Amino acid sequence: MTDGVKNRQGMKYNRRRTVNESYRNALQAFIDRRRSSNDVEIETSNSPDKLRADLSSKNNNNKCDNKWKSQELKSIIPGVPHIAAPEIFEIGWIAGTEDRYLELIFAEWQNTRVSLKRHSHPECKDAVKADLDILSEIRHPNVLLLMATTFTDDHGLVSIFESVDCTLYHYMHDQGERISMQGIAKCGGRLSDALRHSHMRGYVHTAISSHCVYLASNGIIKLGGWELAMHINNPKPKREYEERLRAEVFRWQAPELFHGYEPYKESDVYGLALLIWEMCTMHVPWNGYNKADVERQYVHWKRGVIMDLYNFPPLLYNLLEAGLQLDVNKRTLDMNRMRRFLQNCNTRM
């Protein structure tokens, strides 16, 4: 990042600090409160058992129907704390997530800043649950930290994440903040490490873009937006929300997805390489093109994003040239190699 970025965002690129502090600091207040409340009362107000009892009593007193009750109980994800919605105080939208089918909201929970993720369209209600299911399998310091869930009448299941300031898209294109080449290499390295972990766990992201990369409040880049992810060994699931969500990120999609092929690990390689291209050029890929135009460029004309008009450092140019191959079979990089390549770029810049 530039010096200005470091000063304003407080971004810390020390890998050891990220691994040791990102999880501990984000969850410390939450863990302490749960531990201290357990000392006083065995059945805490935030425990799943207490929530079920309170919900049952509330439904009986208000004569609510059983369908709503079953939806509430089913929203509890194993291993993820579930809390009552009145405990959360909403503040406002997180910059860069307004007017999207999945929005993020600034909020406070027990004096701790958090981010709420919820759907804004009824067809996308299952996307929140899909995101949670993946995140429960791939926890990583560079993946947006899931802290809890809640349930509301208007939005159903809502996920609660660590606090974030804005999307990378907003930071670059709305605020106009430029990232240094060394900062780009560090950001790319963090994202490749997260994706390497998800690939090892058997999941591909399939929808990497600057809209799903966040600047956390501790200054660290985090990867979110896992609702379109899929398991490598499973057939592509049929999801009601997929068409709407992909319509928001079609400019970042790998070429093979326009051919109707299922995503591969190499699709994430293309997505990360295109994101690095975006950070280097400060341009949205295929800006001004509609989906049919982008598909025509990839499928009919066999053209990718422009490389020759920009002065990339030689090491990054080599990475982009390899990662942005239109033919998935010629895209020989994997996340291990991308990670090592970006580490090498960082040390030489």
From TrEMBL:
Protein kinase domain: residues covered: 83-342
Chain intervals for the UniProt region annotation (Disordered): 37-63
Signal peptide as annotated in the record: none
SUPFAM superfamilies per the UniProt record, alphabetical: Protein kinase-like (PK-like)
GO cellular component: intercellular bridge; kinetochore; midbody
Pfam families: PK_Tyr_Ser-Thr (PF07714)
GO molecular function: ATP binding; protein kinase activity
GO aspect biological process, one term: attachment of spindle microtubules to kinetochore
PANTHER family in UniProt: TESTIS EXPRESSED 14, INTERCELLULAR BRIDGE FORMING FACTOR, TESTIS EXPRESSED GENE 14
Protein name (database record): Testis-expressed protein
